[in-house]
Amino acid sequence: MHPLLIILIFVVIIWGTYSLAAASDRKKKRRRALRAPFAPAWEKILQNNLPPYQKLSPQLKEQLQQYIKLFICEKSFEGCGGLTINDEIKVTIAAQACLLLLNRNTNCYPKLRTIIVYPHTFVDGKKGIINAGFRSNTARLGESWTRGIVVLSWNSVKGGATNFKDGQNVTMHEFAHQLDQADGVADGAPILKERSAYSAWARVFSEKYEELQDKAARGKKSVMNKYGATNPAEFFAVATETFFEKPRQLNKKHPELYETLQKFYEVNPVEWL
Hints:
Blueprint: H1 3-35, H2 40-49, H3 58-74, E1 76-79, H4 87-99, E2 114-118, E3 122-123, E4 139-140, E5 142-145, E6 149-153, H5 154-162, H6 170-180, H7 197-217, H8 232-245, H9 247-253, H10 255-265
Parallel strand pairs: 1-2, 2-6
Antiparallel strand pairs: 3-4, 5-6
Helix pairs in contact: 1-3, 2-4, 3-4, 4-5, 4-6, 6-8, 8-9, 9-10
């Protein structure tokens, strides 16, 4: 046998053994996290920083707590701009991100590795903040990267969490992008349960996206933020914010869009009002 082939086989065996060991360690870590009781201090953070939490059914509360434990166990948080990461930051971000996962068969943002948190608005292009390979040097509240990173402004995160009626929530916005980017493309179409559902999704979202574009161009008001008219990916993220924060208004103005989002997210936020 050729020496190079022997080396290649050896490398493959070593890498396979390492990968299996790493996967086993992750499973053990997950099991420990899920078995651990939900900390009373974390429960208090949810009660103070997430108004919908009080209205969730016991089953949804338990789901949310389990997802939060997994999220904090598996994701890395990095403070920038002098911000020190604490439990309030972790739990508040995780809770809002995981509201998007309730009742759905999902693996808790498997491609996401790191959440970078600034105290206030940040400027992309600084401290390694690079968006799609270019630097724009503009102030941002949040960013979602296809490379497993979400960047957030803490004051915007907390403001969006505690004011759950204005239709603006930077955490949900950026994590909607993560759901959208799960297939590797940010196009406003997340991974759906059934292939047959994509045609109905495309029809409803295209129609409502064009409608929002028209309203934005004419300076007309909409229940959805006009930023959603930027592109289909931003429309999905803005529609998600509105669905969770202004469900009654969205259902009244755009019932078909609301129904489509309800089928995807498998919750009815009207019940949490």
